[in-house]
Amino acid sequence: MKMMSDGELEQASLSQLQKFCEELRGEIFRTVSARGGHLASNLGVVELTVALHRMFCFPQDKIVFDVGHQCYTHKLLSGRAEQFCTLRSRGGISGFPKRSESEYDCYETGHAGTAVSAALGIAKARDLKGEDFSVIALVGDGSFNNGLIYEALNSLNILNTRILIILNDNGMSISPTVGSTHEILDELKSGNAPRGDVALFERYGLKYIGICNGNDLSELLPALKNAKEALRTQSVLLHVTTRKGQGYAFCEQQPDRTHGISPECRGVEYSEALGEELTALAAKDRRIVAVTAAMTDSLGLRPFFQAYPERSFDVGICEEHACVLSAALAAGGMHPYYAIYSTFLQRAYDEVIHDVCGQNLPVTFCIDRAGITGADGETHQGIFDLSYLSPIPNLTIAIPANIAEFRAMLRLSADYSAPLAIRYPREGKEGNCDGVEIGKFNILHCNISDIIVYAAGERCIRLARDLLAQAASYGITFTIVNARFLKPVDTEFILSRPEHYVITIEDNVVIGGLGDAVARVLRGSGRVVRCFGCKDTFLPHGSVRELADEFGPSGAEILSYLQVCHAR
Fold it and tell me: Do the beta carbons of residue 228 and residue 134 sit within 8 Å?
């Protein structure tokens, strides 16, 4: 489709802009259907983004997208339309703002709640340098639950600068927005809010303007003009409502299911097993509760929430709060299961250390999307959790070999009275499991050889098996071990093995993971240890297979090393 230039956007009539918005919406739908990506959220902000590009002068003016997954229209309008068909593919454009991709992307985002802080920093740098441009933070109502937003607002007057915050209120994060902030925003939208709700924003130093329909350009453009005028003298909060999935009925009706779309055919998801097993366990144990931070369906918890609503807690995009809540529930005699993506658990690291493990409380962390996750890029790769969790005292870390072993670990966790983390990828095979014992490895394939391979998790075990088949043609064989616990690592087993050449494979950065743990056990033993994992870099976007081949533990590299070991 043909993009409008900045000049054409400025001169276009209302009807021309409306037609252009529908064309943009169609382009987004076609591309996401083919490439995968965030659909409903981007369909909802087409008019809002077009209006911003009409009213402001980008890239001189700066816009920070909170989370960032709703930036597709912005990318189309900022010189990337021809590349849009490469969205989220290796070597193509990112699904999130990326500074190296375009000068229109002034700040990289991927997690919720950061936009106001970032906008304040950019605005203050502007002031100190004596420059003159507008800074905008586009924030969803789901992010307005996040505590970081209020830390930023608390410093607005202290920093003595001016920003425009656009509150994009669609009643959704990934799951429907929950909590008192959501209720306050609903009251504002209904016109029944007490004066104090608006006054709260004003006490932070914001001029509140609202409510306007963010999908109706006839309302939106005058509201943005007023906000831009007010921004000359003070910071502004413009409250707009949009409809997630706007323009496509099935997206509007199921915004949670069309938040993220994947074109790939997938196997069984670990999240399905989590929902099934946790619901079954809760029927036998009234202490079991489930906690999530705005991701009930994505993490497979819907069956549990439906069966046990009184024991189900979705706290919104508040990962740190969810972690402390879990700790306190455990201190009160419950057994919380905190389900969360690996990349989002990073945000609650202090609480994992201080509140859960420091008190040695029986919280089970169900860590989904661990390892290389693919097309969402740098901010969403789950390749750090083994490293950041392994130094924490009192924490047991489990890595299932397949879904059957994951189920067994969940059943084992019900009577486990200490912190436990189970990390797993999005999808896998059901497989089988002969039983799990805390801290114990098991042999998957045994051969008389001077080489042993410790593999952690389903992907790495599959890679080890593939390598065994390939190595056979070179007359090479080795023993494969399922290293299903990083902590406690099976020291007795490792020291008992006679093999001279020790190889570790993990879907995690090498530093601080399984390889380091095995190497520590064997230090001074005379064994030769070689560790394979993800490269020491931030992984870009692309398919899981492409990224694993380029940045993960390399099958070709391991095979080459096996040949060297065999020759010796």
Answer: yes
